Amino acid sequence: MTLKVETTIKESVFTIILKGLIDYSTVDEFNSFQVPENVSRIIVSFKEVDFIDSTGIGSVLTLIHFASDHDIQVEFVDLDDSTRELFETIGVFKVMEALLKEGR
Amino acid sequence: MLGSDTASHIRHENDPDYTTLLREIQLARNIQRKLLNGERPPLRSGEISGISIPARMIGGDYFDFYPLDNGKIRFIIGDVMGKGIPAAMLMILTRGAFRSAAGSAGSPGETLTAMNNAMYKDLRILNSFVTVCCADWDPRTGQFVYANGGHNSPILVRSQNRTMELPNPKGVMLGGLSGQVYIENEIYLQQDDLIFFYTDGVIEAQNRAKQMYKIDRLVPLLKEHADKQVSEIESIVVEELDHYTEGLPQRDDITIVMLKMGRRLKIGRRMLECRIKRNEDV
Q: Which branch of life, at top level (chain A) (predicted)?
């Protein structure tokens, strides 16, 4: 199984659509996109994600830290119950809350 | 196709760099196995066990036991992001942080705070993280205090055959945020109660139909065999996973840590019963 990453930009909103498996074998694809300059918001859609492992979550975490460093807002959409539960257990939402709401 | 694979294999075997690399991986595997299978703390009552089966030659899962001066045992289970050699290197970093923190921190929560403080910068530079659950168990009284840094909650099987996932204090993974304080939960174990810690590799093991094993299968299995010794339960779970995955290659490291409560000390029993009653909702 593979991962397909589709990106679009509209005004200052950068949208990333993830399709397939995000794990150790496919994560390079997730890490390959470049966030364009002058982006103020990143939306990541997990609607077509079949499975995400810890390596994938590591990339998600890196994106959050990148956004925090560059004062960009991040939103994760279309998470299924198991991905949401995983993010909650590991603490992804707490990291988002702490890093992306401060000073806004 | 077979011919080209074989030729490639032979070419590698004759390559001195390849042979050296293979030897170094083997040595690294031995180091990891020895560190994970270190001496278990002696118990006058109760049982403990731990096993880690890496998906590759070496893995990123970690567990450890650290006897404290007050008679309690502090232990930890952890899962480093990723697999193989990179994860194994971070597992050693995690072990060093735990060993260093366990001797000086006053509680499981403080241990995780100290570990996060020690590892945070390195983990951020490496874009990595570690999930951990740390607990103090007093085999004499049954007191069990735990804190969680992004890991699965342990499963408690009461001796009356009641199973439950322990409430998760939901701390952030190590390497997620700096300066974290980890909340602790406390319960009291009764005789023959079993606590089962595990890493993702257990519940995410897949069969040929790509269905995961999931906690819904694990809990009834534990409930059925909770009256056995922990070494037996360990073998049953590993065999069950092997059977479930139908011989497919293991996708993720599998680690299991168990403790089973023996007889409590009679001293202070009345006080203890009161404390158990207060924690009955857990």
A: Bacteria
Report how far residue B164's alpha carbon sits from residue B143's, in angstroms, rounded to the nearest whole number: 17
- CB count in 10 Å sphere of residue A23: 21
B129 touches chain A (CB under 8 A): yes
**Inter-chain contact A54–B170, Cβ cutoff 8 Å?**
no
**pLDDT grade, residue B139 (50/70/90)?**
very high
Q: Please state, in angstroms and rounded to a whole number, the distance separating the CA atoms of residues B194 and A78.
A: 38
Per the CB < 8 A criterion, the answer to whether B63 and B75 are in contact is yes
Instruction: Tell me the per-residue pLDDT of A14-50, one tens digit each, with 9 for 90 and over.
Output: 999 999 999 888 988 888 888 999 999 999 999 999 9
Measured between alpha carbons, how far is B59 from B254 in angstroms, rounded to an integer?
Answer: 9
Q: For CA atoms B171, B175, B180, B181, give the dihedral sign.
A: positive
Determine the pLDDT at residue B268.
52
pTM of the model: 0.89
Looking at the complex, does the CB of residue A5 fall below 8 Å from at least one CB of chain B? no
Question: Which candidate, B172, B113, B182, B115, places its Cα nearest to that of A99?
Answer: B172
B252 min Cα distance to partner chain A (Å): 10
Q: Where are the alpha helices (DSSP H) in chain B?
A: 2-14, 16-36, 84-102, 108-125, 200-203, 214-225, 230-244, 269-278
| Residue B15: per-residue pLDDT | 85
